[in-house]
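Prompt: I keep going back and forth on a fold encoding question. Comparing notes only helps if you start from a blank page. Show me how you would write down a chain together with its backbone fold. Please set it down just below, with no commentary around it:
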Amino acid sequence: MDMLSDELLVDAYLSAIQFNLDPEFIKLLTVEMIRRQINPETYRITA
């Protein structure tokens, strides 16, 4: 997870929710965002 930029982490999280991926995967992403103190609403996805 450390190799992902904050922006890619948030993008992966939002995509995982959008595509209803495995809840354990979403939880893993959530834990990492908490560890980095990232609020996904503060990032604008431009792609």
